[in-house]
Every structure is written in C-alpha cells, then in structure tokens.
Amino acid sequence: MSSNPDEPKSRARTDFLRTNESEVQRSWDESKVFEADPGSEPPGPGEKFFGNFTYPYMNGLLHLGHAFTLSKLEFGAAYHRLRGCNVLLPFAFHCTGMPIKASADKLAREIQQYGNPPLFHGAGGAAVADALQTDAVAPDKFRGKKSKSAAKAGTNKYQWEIMKSFDLQDEEIAKFQDPYHWLTHFPPLAKEVLKKFGLGCDWRRSFITTDMNPYYDSFVKWQTRKLKKLGKVVKDMRYTIYSPLDGQPCADHDRATGEGVQPQEYMLVKMEVIAPFPPRLKALEGRKVYLAAATLRPETMYGQTNCWVLPDGIYGAFEINDTDVFILTARAALNLAYQHLSRVPENPTRLRELSGNDLIGLPLKSPLSLNQTIYALPMLTVLTDKGTGIVTSVPSDSPDDFIALQNLVTKPALRAKYGVIDEWVLPYEIIPVIYVPEFGDKSAEKVCHDLKIKSQNDKEQLAEAKRMTYLKGFTDGTMIVGEFSGRKVHEVKPLIKNKLLEEGTALLYSEPEKKVMSRSGDECVVALTDQWYITYGEAEWKQKAVRCLDGMNTFSAETRNGFEHTLGWLNQRACSRSFGLGSRIPWDEQFLVESLSDSTLYMAYYTVAHFLQNGNMYGKEMSSIRPEEMTDEVWDFVFCDVPAPKADIATAQLNRMKQEFEYWYPFDIRISGKDLTQNHLAFCIYNHATLLPEHRWPRGFRCNGHLMLNSEKMSKSTGNFLTLEEAIEKYSSDATRFALADAGDGMDDANFVTETANSAVMRLTKEISWMEEVTASESKLRAEPPTTYADRVFANEMNIAIKETEKSYNGFMFREALKSGFYDLQLARDEYILSCGAAGMNRDLLWQFMDVQTRLVTPICPHYAEYVWRKILKKQGFAIKGGWPVADTPDPTLRTANKYLQDSIVQMRKLLQKQESGSKKPKKGAVSAPPSEAKKISIGLIYVNEHYSGWKEQCLRVLQSKFNSQTHSFAPDQEITEALMNCPIGKEMNLKQVQKLCMPFVRFKKDEAREVGPQALDLKLPFSEMDVLRENLELIKRQLGLEHVEVLPAFDDAARSKAGECVSLLEKNPPSPGDPVFIFLSKYRYRKASHVVHGWTAEATTRASTVPGKKTHGSLWRLEGWGHYLMRKLSNIFKNLLILDWRGAAARDEQIMNCLLALVRGRLTHMTRSQIQPPERKVSSVCLPSHLSSSLHLLLKMVAMFRDLLGEGETSLINPFALPLANSSLMVMLTNIFHAMAASDASKRDSIVSRGFVMRSWIGSAASST
Fold first, then answer.
1. Which of 423, 746, 884, 1116 lies at a C-alpha separation of 20 to 30 Å from 554?
2. How many CA atoms lie within 13 A of 25 on its CB side?
3. Three-state DSSP state, 1174
4. What top-level class of enzyme does the UniProt entry assign (predicted)?
C-alpha cells in the first residue's frame, strides 16, 4: 500500500479506467471521429462550433496548468459535439521567441566548460546537489519536472540538470544544444499526452511556429507585410523593456517575472551643485555636477525647499558626456546608458562612489525653485530601487516631504545625528504652489493634520494622504505661482514639462514600472531602441478594437473590464527582436517577428493548415501546394474577401480553402489564462479588427484563473507540481478531467484537489458496477408505468438535471455542470432507492437514469461514457455523438414539495434521536439499556399549519405590497414599518411593540424573498403539506423506525388532544407553513393521552350542562370538554392583556381576576378590548366556601405566574397549556373552581372566608341570577 495519502490505495480501479481509455482512444482514432470538415452550405446558428486555445510554449512538458485552461475548451467543444454541432477543435505548438534559443545556448556553454557529460564543481556543484535533493520531497508533495520554472530561474540551476529532470539520458541531452532539436522533441510528446487526455482534436491541422514550418512562416510574413501596408507597423526610436544580457527587447513571453510591466517615464530634474565642492567631490571640479532627481510632478518644482537623499544609500558620480556628471544610483545610471545618456553607450562610467552621507548639505541650484539655494537633506524613506535615489522636496503638496521636513525642523537631535546645520533647514518656509478647493494652498499640511500623521514611519497614512493630494491636485488644482498662475494644473503640466526640456534643465528618463527579470536571469532596463513597432492605440484602430470587443461574449464582467482597461492604455508595441527563433521580418531580415506578434491571427491558419501541411505539423510533407505558392495575394483571397488572384494553385483548391475558412470563421470562442488579456488577447482583437472584415471578428473569449494544487501554488521547486502525463498515469484521464472540472470556474484561481481525483476513480468504477448489477437484475424491477410519488420525484429530478446542466455547459461553467449532471443526479438516484421501499424501483426510470447521467457527464468523462454506452446500455455508435437527452418541463413545485418532505424527515430524525438519547449524555464506555416497551417511542404525530394567519399574515401582505420582483428588493424599512402600523395589528399596538413582535419575522422573510423570489411571501406553500406527508407515511415510518405516524391539522381540537400533555409543544412553537411540529410518543403515552381526553370529555360535558345560560357547541365541547374550553378562553384573555398599558402589579392582578370571574359568568364571550378594562362601578368582595381554598390557591399561583410573565415583557401568546401547572389535573381543578363560583350562594358573597382569600370583582346582574 502506498505511504503517500495522495496515491490511490489500489491500482486495480485506476488500471481498469486506463485500460478502457486506451481501447476507446484507439476506437476514436480508427473512426477519425474528431476530424471536422465543413458542410456544403454555410452553417446556421448553432450548427458549427470552432473553439481554440492559446498554444503552449514548447520548452518543456505540459502540466496541469495547461490542462486546466485547455479543459475549458475541451469540455465546451465536447458538449457542442454531443448536441450535434459540427465541432472543430485544433491544437498547435508555439516555439517562437528566445527561451528555447537561450536554453540551448546555455547548455552549449555548460558542455563547453564542463564537458559532455559535464562534471560540475565548486559553488555550482553545491547548487546542483541542492537541486538534486529536491527529489526528496515531503510525502504530501509531488515530484515535479522542473522545466519551466528552472528555465526561468536561469542562473539558479544548470541547464543540464533541467534537461535531466525531463527523464532524458546523458547521450540525448547534448542534442539540445541545437534549438531546433527542441522543436522535434517536445511537440510530439505533447501531442501523445493530449491524446491520452482524450482531447477531441483534429490533429490534421496541428502545426508548430517558426520558420521551421515553411507554410506558417509564409502566413506570418503575409500578416506582417499586410500590417505594414496598412500603416500599422512603423520603425522609430521608442522606450522599451530591454535585457542587457540578451541584447534585445524583453517582451512578456521572454520574462521570468514582470509580465505586463511597461516603461515608466519621469522628468529628470538637474539640480546643479554649487561650488566650492566638498572634499569628496574635489576631483569633479571643473565639471558641471548635478544631483539628478526623477519626478512625476514637474509643475510643483516652484515650491522646492530642499532635496532628499538616503543617508545609507550608495550613489555614484556618473559621466553623462564631456561636461556633465550626474549623481544618482548605479541602477538609474544603467537605464540612462541604454537611453543614450552616457558617455559610453550601454556602459555607464562611474567617476566616484558616494554615500548618501557624502551628499548631505550640498548646496544646490534647482530649476523653477523660488529658493535660490536649497540643500540636500536626509530622508529615511527614500527608495534606491525606484527612480534615481535623489528626490525633490515640495512640502506644500507632498505629504512625505512635509512630514520629513517637519521632523527635521522640530527635532534638533535628528539634525545633529546627520550633521544638518540649522541654516539648511530652519529658514525655509512652505511655498504654496497649487490651490485645491478641498485642501487650500498647502494640501500636504492640511491632509497630514487631518489624518494626524506625525512620523515618516506612518506609511499607511502617508500613502492615503499622497493618494488624496495627488489626485485632487491634478484634477481640481489651480496654479498660484509662476507664469502659468491661474490656470488648471492638468492644462499646464505638459507646458511646464516642455519648458524644462527646452531650457535644458531637465530631461526625459524611463525605467520599468516594476522589477523585470528576463529568462536569462538579468534585471531588465528601459532602452531607447530603433526598432519596428505595431501602432496599437492609434485612434481609429482603437475604435474598431473597442467595437470588436463590444460584440464579443466574454463570459464574465471581470474579463470584459480587463479588456476595456487594456484597450484604454495599450499603445505602440515592439514587434521585432534580434535573438531567438521565429519568422524573419520580410523587409528587414536582421530582425525576427517577436513571439506575441506572430500569434495574433493563427486561428485563421487552422482552417487551411491541413490543405497545406498534409497532416504533418512541421509542413515537411509537401502537399499539392508548395510554400512559395502561398503568395500575399493567395492569403488575401482566402481570408480577406478579395477577388481570386492569378496563382499557380488550382482554382478548385483555392476555392476549397476559402470555403473552409468562411465556414469556420469567425471562431466561436478562444480560451486563455487571464494573464493574457493585457497582451496576446488584446493584440488578437486589434489584428482581427484591421486584417479581417467585421463579420469575421471573434465571437467570444473566455478567461480563467491560474491553477493551484491542493490549495497551494504549483511550483516545481517545492515539488508541488504535476505534469499532465503524471496526472493521467496516477489517476486516469477521466478522473483527472473530473478533478479539473471540479477545480473551479471564473477568473479566480482554481484548485485541483488530488483527493477529488482519487474519489473520482472510486465514483466512476462504483457507478459502472452498480449499473451492471441493475441490468443483471432487471427482472426484479417494477415494470409498470412510473406513477408513485417517488417515481414522479425521480423523473422530475432528471428533467431538472438536464436543464440545469445544459445551462451550465452553455455558460462554460463546468463545475456547475458536474454538480447538476453528476453529483445532484447521484443524490437523486440514491434518494429514489431509499424512497421506493417495498414497492421497488421502476425499471424504465433506472434505464432512463443510466442513459441521462451518461450523456450529461460525457463531455467531462468521455471514456467512462463510452464504456457505459456500449457495454452496459448496448447502444450503437459513440457516446460523444449520442445526442443531448430530452427533458420534459421540470415541475419546480414537485421539487419544492420533495425538499419539504426530505427536510422534514431529517428534522424528525434529529428530534427523535435527541428525545431517545435524553438530555444527559451517557458516560464514556457505558452501554445504554434498551428502552422498556412502555417508554419505547413508536408513534409520531406531525402537526401541520398550511396557512399563515393573524399578525404573520398581515406582515406578509405588507411585504408583498412592498416587494419588487424584478430587482428582488424591498421598499425602505421605514415605509414597511409605516404600512405595518396602518394594518390591524398596528392599530392594536404601539410602534415599539410592533417592532418587537413583527420585525424578526419580517427580516427573515425579506432575506428569503431576496434569495428565492416573491413565492417566499405567499401565505401558503404551493403544494398541500398534508397530502405530501400523508402520501409518504410509509417512507417516514421506515426512515424513522416508527410503527405509526399521523399527519394532523394543527388547530383541530380533536387532533391536538392526541398529543396529551405534549400539546404544550404546539403552544411553545406553533407550526407554520413549511415548518410542521413533530411529537413523538410511546404506545403507553399515546394510549394514556387518548384515555384522559375521552374520560375528561365525558365528565366535563356532564358538568357543562349544569351551567345556566351555556350551551354545548356540538363536537367542540363534547370532544374537548368544558374545562378545556375555559382554558382556551383564558388564553385569549391573556393575549389581549398583553396590549394593555399596565400601571402596576396590583392593578394588573385585579384586572386578571376580574377577567377570570367575568369569564365564569359568561361575560367575556364577545367582549371587545374596551370592555376588558376595569369597570367604573362598585367592586364587591366575594367569599368562597373554605373547602375550595386550596384549589383557589392554585388558581392564584397561576395568576401570579401570568403577572410575572407580563412583567418581563413577554410578547408571545401566553397560554395555560405552556405552563408547568397546565395538566389535566389542573384543568379538572379549575373547572371545579369555576362551577363553585357560579353556584355559590349569593347570601355569602359579602362575607370573608376565614382562610383570608379575598377577591375583588365586579358582580353583574347575570351573576346575581346565577
């Protein structure tokens, strides 16, 4: 057994899947099932699907990250193929650029230096040893092939060792000194792995890039010439990210880090050092020496009070030309040297190394500054890896400058520490430069005071202050000094910039926005290069690109926003390089077409590649068309709707290529990682928009996030890495595809979970076993039409699964498709098996399930589907072309009803388990004794209330009137509260009482309605709860292990009586629609409850007949009894008492007793609220016989209990049944009391009993007659 938890416990199931996959793939190949040819007529909507994937770079093996992005195309294409579309999915291999050439050259240098095979030693040997030890990874990591990341690292590992990680032998590795050998080695390996993956690819159209493929080389040269002819390619001096080591521009694909980083332009302000020079600069006398400060805000230079240097920073005095010397960092000097600002181009000459301390106190003359002389001062937050390490100081508008200067002014010890004398700091006042309406003319000071910033170390607050002042200063600021005073900052900024440049007191300087490392391992600079550029961003072209994007489906708002942002800033882009592999620029062959410029239109090449290359990806097997015959005129004819050219190619062949292109184009979707929105995909939009007619522009781009492995970033260096081939071998193709589908959708980073892949092996093989068992025992299944409740639910769930999975596939949301098409369907099947019970499962439904599930999962697990299709379902043809299952219209009400049923069973099971186990947990290790027959729970009573009533009904009606079903939103809370106060409940309570009683329910229902819609506000569910539960009594009994279950109406008195003393549960938590109440009883308690109810009824009926003026109201009194009736009346009384304005316990007790006695005399039968108030008439004392005093004592206890509850602000219904004393004995006792009161002798009413029980009450005429 494997010690790695990510390894399958046994290979048997995996081997079964792998064997089946090999058989299925052979069958597909033999039938050429994925080869796609156009129809004879142009396709109608939905008849064809052409999708493509950003081809991978071939300097290593395909890994799971490639597979994840590719799976989005593969699953989508497979779905459309299943639906009967004519599907084209081609695949190619990208080899253009410098990484392969750089790696090959690096390998050649190692062999030359260390031999073949090389014998590394010294520090390098240690590095190799460290690298070799990475094989001993933790057991929960994977042994990854370290190709791409190691190649990116460049200097961190020998190229020889990188090649060894590809399982290459020593004698093979030397061949990779030839960069073209990489092109013959890796693409065929990738193709074979993709076949194992089950990719539904038309391999006839596969190709590699570079001039190694003469047909593709011809295509790229046509595209480049056409762009130049249209004026989209120009040669000019431009700033570009540049690799000094490679000696050429470093495009995105050439970078190890910093993809997407652009040159950042600064103004380099020349602050001249005033003579005499200090000793450290004596050697520079006679030269013009400047501290060169990089700034983005030249308009603020009027307010300079000083400049800043980092005390511990390392600077240098660099020779710019024969006369000028700049003091700045070596990094900035290197950038300047590549921008023609060094005496020796590309090689800055440092005349003197200096520290920041050497510069403190230098007197300076700075352009535009209103101060004639300023000084270099220390600042602890100056960055030497950004700008030049020299920073201008404008404390009026820069929060950083203001705080740093204030620290020096207010802290003499700080000045002393760095040797700063007072004359350099104290005389300098803040000079207002810009007026900002929100902050005044000293923005930095105002914002720092507002944010209470005291120190240079308050970095977060300073960053916020900077954001506030810089943005407002530029957009709303007005200049208040200089020749541009009174004009807006955003107007004069370019004017001031030009003024400084014209005067020669500043110059332009660029550096990378962020750090960029080339794949060769050096830090890139910004160089001013004379090269070929594509004029992205040109106004008219940009408009067409935006129009193209507007017509595309991007599948997410985030993707669209990314494209809109990129099209907003994208401008001229270098399209040439001098090092690497690729096609030569046809009119200037010293340059190559860079890798992001030869890959913007190749999707069109797929449509004709098989005509030209004869199925050979290298274009080496000549077809009837020779490469040189593919002239620009021929390419134009095929792709650009122009007349047929004079060509050596047969007219029929030309027409076939044109027909093929027009059938498939435009492509329907392009799948890519999200990182390519800012370059490759944006370039693709631009190129299509200018080279092809509008009706051939792309229809859709879908982007996804990166892939993590077990919630960690995939990394070869840590071992948390899997190649695609390793994953297939470890889990099988279908299980790998299953886990890729489950990894995630959208632009967020996804997560491939190895446990999901392992579990997929088990799930798929177990499902096959179950299907085989079902088909083997077909005769035992129920053969009649599916009519039972369980049948109807199961059939409905299959219909829902079909519809939901179809929606997910159409939206390219494959995790959701897997959920509805596999997981949910499995749950529905398992539930059906449990629900059928003795009736058995329906044969037709099970066969339908096997058919439906197989079709729904086919795009994700096609090999598994083929096995089921042919060997279990015995169908002809291929599952991948079997068609989409037909679904009846789903019944959402039936699904809701079944969820109600299943949720009710789950809730009943929890309550039953809790009741059986009791409140106390058994001691550890103790064995519970089985319950006695008397205590064993075997009866279940389900009380249902199908309609909201009372105050809840009023609340729902208000919410219904205030809900917007279009937006799923409600009116403001204040409006809802006002509506509640205007309905009947609001007229009986004050605002505070309404809020306390109603608002929790209102909030709950609002949240529910926002989630599910207006049906959440219905007064009843869309189905009969009673019918659903009663139809499934056998299921409930079987699931809960009960002998008898009844479904009862909650407010039927006869039904309530069956609960016996447990009826209090109905009062504490009354049922509501969708929320029944469950009561479980033993047989003993159930029989006792029935006996007590019937016995009490007979007794109470007899006594009730002795009460003058009362009539029994049919079955109600006969079933429930007079005592029960009195208790219900009491409940109504106390409910009404809740809304009274009590002014003290004594008054409350008096009123309760008045109500009780009035009830006895029949005076509260139809009383209104006003009649409940204490009457303004004489109050008499009533004397009861002394033998009733004990009973009356209990009654008074109950009164006191009501009083206490009312005193605590209780707002729920107060019902005697909810009280501890409310049992059948108390009911009898109270009835005796009430009868005694009614029958007491009037002559004794004015006397006082010796026991001292006195009640004050109102005695009316009716009482006198009694």
1. 884
2. 19
3. coil
4. ligase
Q: Note whether 471 and 366 are same-domain residues.
A: yes
**What pTM value is reported for the model?**
0.74
User: For residue 927, is pLDDT > 90?
Assistant: no
- What are φ and ψ of residue 317, in 5° steps? -100, 110
CATH number of the domain at 882, please.
1.10.730.10
DSSP 540: H
- Give dist(CA 42, CA 661) in Å, integer: 11
Count structural domains, the chain.
6
C-alpha distance from residue 928 to each of 919, 932, 1193 (Å)? 14, 12, 43
Q: Does 1140 lie in the same domain as 1011? A: no
For 1055-1109, give the secondary structure using H, E and C.
HHHCCHHHHHHHHHCCCECCECEEEEEEHHHHHHHHHHHHHHHHHHHHHHCCCCC
Q: What is the mean pLDDT of residues 593-621?
A: 94
Q: Count the Cβ atoms, other than its own, within 10 Å of residue 1186.
A: 12
Domain co-membership, 1049 together with 996 = no
**Do residues 941 and 1070 share a domain?**
yes
- Name the token pair of 1019: 């007064």
Nearest to 58 by CA among 24, 23, 32, 94: 94
Is 1039 within the bounds of a domain? yes
Mean local confidence (pLDDT), 268-290: 93
Same domain, 1004 and 1121: no
Domain boundary among 986, 1001, 1017: 1017
| pLDDT tens-digit series, residues 617-675 | 999 887 889 999 999 999 999 999 999 999 899 999 999 999 999 999 999 999 999 98
Q: Which domain holds residue 822?
A: 786-900
Phi/psi for 553 (5° steps) reads -95, 115
Beta bridge pairs of residue 517 = 257, 523
- Three-state secondary structure readout of 90-157: CCCEECCECHHHHHHHHHHHHHHHHCCCCCCCHHHHHHHHHHHHCCCCCCCCCCCCCCHHHHHHCCCC
* CB-based contact 1163:1240 (threshold 8 Å): no
In a domain, 5, yes or no: no
Report the distance separating Cα 52 and Cα 37, nearest Å: 16
515, part of any domain: no
Q: What is the pLDDT of residues 865-894, one digit of tens each?
A: 999 999 999 999 999 999 999 999 999 999
Percent of the chain with pLDDT over 90: 63
Q: If 0-12 CB within 10 Å is exposed, 13-18 middle and 19+ buried, where does residue 1129 land?
A: middle
Look at residue 1151 in the predicted model and tell me its pLDDT.
Answer: 52
Digit-coded pLDDT (tens) for 476-531: 999 999 999 999 999 999 999 999 999 999 999 999 999 999 888 889 999 998 88
- The rounded distance, in Å, linking the Cα atoms of 651 and 658 is 11
Which tens digits make up the pLDDT trace of 754-806?
999 999 999 999 999 999 999 999 888 998 899 899 999 999 999 999 999 99
Residue 1065 has pLDDT above 70, yes or no: yes
Is the residue at 186 inside a domain?
Answer: no
Q: In this structure, are 1035 and 995 located in the same domain?
A: no
Same domain, 388 and 279: yes
Last residue of a domain, one of 180, 210, 232: 180
Contact between 754 and 4 under an 8 Å Cβ cutoff? The reply is no
CATH number assigned to the domain comprising residue 422? 3.90.740.10
- CB atoms inside a 10 Å sphere around CB 12: 10
- Each residue's pLDDT tens digit, 212-263: 999 999 999 999 999 999 999 999 888 999 999 888 888 887 888 888 888 9
Place 1168 in a pLDDT band, splitting at 50, 70 and 90.
very low
* DSSP designation for 353: E
- CA 9, CA 55: separation in Å to the nearest integer? 36
Outline where DSSP puts E strands in 566-668. Answer: 573-574, 576-577, 592-593
